[in-house]
Each structure stands twice: as structure tokens, then as C-alpha cells.
Amino acid sequence: MISISKLLCGLDAESDGLRYDAADESAADQITERKQHRPVVVWNTTKQCNLYCSHCYASADTETIPGELSTAEGKALLDQLADFGVPVVLFSGGEPLVRDDLPELVAHASAAGIRPVLSTNGTLITEEKARALKDAGLRYAGVSVDGLPERNDAFRGKEGAFDAAVRGIEACLDAGLKTGLRYTITERNAADLGGVIDLLVDVGVDRFCFYHLDYGGRGKGIVDADLSPAAKRDAVRRLCDLTREYHDAGEEIETLLVGNYADAGYLIEYADRELGRDHAERIRTYLERNGGDPAGERVADVDPVGNVHLTQFWQGYSLGNVRERPFGELWSDDANPLLGALRNREERLTGRCADCQYRSLCRGGSRLRALTVHGDLFAPDPQCYLTEGEVRGGEAVPL
Fold it and tell me: DSSP assignment, residue 61?
């Protein structure tokens, strides 16, 4: 994740230590005081979901699948993660709220010293469930809303999903639970970007995660709905402008970009032209600490049956299963060739990535998108939207 609000507006956040090794600069209570050395882990607690979203990376369905981790096995997994020093576990799905034991699992994670957070479509959250999760120790709920009512409901395959998600957000806020809005942009909903941000302000949410489409699960089937690089660039510029406008108006919204590390180079270019060279260089320092695309390093995934993946989007490749080997052993296995290659990817990048001036900040972007489109793990990310001048450090071009 890249924080626009931190880098452009100086907003303190609880992840400053985790993400930028900048805890001592922040007035906010911190998740960790130092930059993470262990991955944030997404746990897809079930394959089951009450919706059928066209971009679902987990290819969720209406039923559970055989062999999903039981409550006891889930607690054992959380103990493995705690033993390995994982700072955060993200309960995801499918839809994690279909599991009746979710509060019990959240409480176990919290007791083990892991920060428990939630990714949900929000439609199943009631006031009672929100209070139960808050009492169990849940620290944050990210609710997915992919456009205004008509487009969101079409995306999610169910009429009324938008209104139900908004009710879920309101229930979380009423329970005193920190809540954010998650939005994945495509050609189908790009026109709703401003309206979605207005929505979160109206509802009272102060955190917005802007996701680029990754090409995993059902997302692989809608690659043609992804924005062109030019349109993606325009959307990121709009988000930067809107974030600054809201901050200038006194609305301290935490805005984050997720899933395309071309954003790192673009933010430096944007700041250089809008805020000055000194500000741009400060952003570069933070982004160098951040470390670029996190696949195989700072983020991991465990699927419903215990298989470990390089990210939550990369479900087609497994490092092994936590029922057979502890998570920490699987994640630390230097003999795994793909894991080793990803952790030394800069020297393997090809094409425009190989000598890009932002290579150390981006590290080639999404290797999954490159593999899906080009059949080459180290080819350029097809959704890099930087111009040749920006890549080579040449003459500035319009933002």
C-alpha cells in the first residue's frame, strides 16, 4: 500500500512505522514501531460468499469447499503466525462473516498478539455482529464498495448490495470500530470515483483504499475491463487531487493506493510538479523504505484449506500447506525457486523495467499481471502507466 495522504498531505497514520519506518515522526498510535520484517497475512477463511463478484480474486462461490480449516485448525494457524512474528492478520474470504466462529478466531488472534483486521463486502454486518467483533478485539474493518448503487450491484451480482454495504459500514461506525472503504477501479466504474469518495465522507468513514485490478481468480476473466494505462494515470491523478482538496477543506481522509507500484514513481512526479522538488525527494525517501511490490515478501496468503500463497491474488501457486509444515517454515524456505526469484527480482526484470529510474521503488510492479499477460514472470507490468520520459528520467510531461 502507498499512502497518498501521508506522502502528499503529511497525515499521520497508525501504519507509519510498519510501512515507512517512521513511527517516531507520527503522533498516531502505531501498529509496530519498526518497519515490518514478517509479512502481513491474508487468511481466506472460507470459499463461501453471499455475493458473486465479477473481479473476485478468490473465485468465491455460494458454498464452502471440502477441507476448510476448522475452528481448532484456524486457531493453530494463528498460533503459527504469532510464533513467526506476523504483525497483522486480515480475515478475508469468500465472505468471512458467513463463519459463525469469526469473533472467536478474531479474539484468538488478538490474544496471540496479532492485530486482527477484516475484509468484507459488508452486507452481512449487523449492529450485533459489529459489536461482537469489536468486543473480540477486531481493530479495523475494510468494506468493499465498487461504485455507486447501480454499478456496485452489477459488479457484485446482487441488487441491493450497495445499500446493505452502507448499512454494514454504519453498524461498524456505531460500534466504534475503525472502518474503511475499499474500491477496485475498472472501466465499468471509473466514472463513480468521485461519488464513492463523497459517499465515504458523508457516511463518516475516514479511510479509502483504491485498488488496481489484479489478474487473479475471476479478475483474470475481466482483464479487458481494466483501464488503459492512460486512463489509470488519469484516475490516480484525480485521486491525488481529490485527497488534497479534502485535506485543504479539513477532512483528514487516509487515502491509499493498492496493487500497482507504478504509483510510486507517479507520486514523485506529481509532487515534483505540484509541491516542489524538496517534497518529491521526501516522498522518494519514504517509498525507498516501503520497498516496492510486496509479493512473496511483505504480504502472504493462506487459503481456506491451508495452502500458502505469495499474495492473496496469486491463488494458482502454493508454497505448501500449514497442515503439513508450519507457516514460518514455508515462508522461509530459500530452496523454493519462485520465492527466491521474487525476492531477488530486480536483477531479473526485463524491458523498460530493467533500467527504469524507479525500479528500486516499484520492483517491477505486479509479477502476476506480467505472467498473465506476457507469460513471463519478469516482463514489464502491462499496467505501468509511466511515460518513457519518466521511466528514463527525461523531460517532464503533463501529469
Answer: B
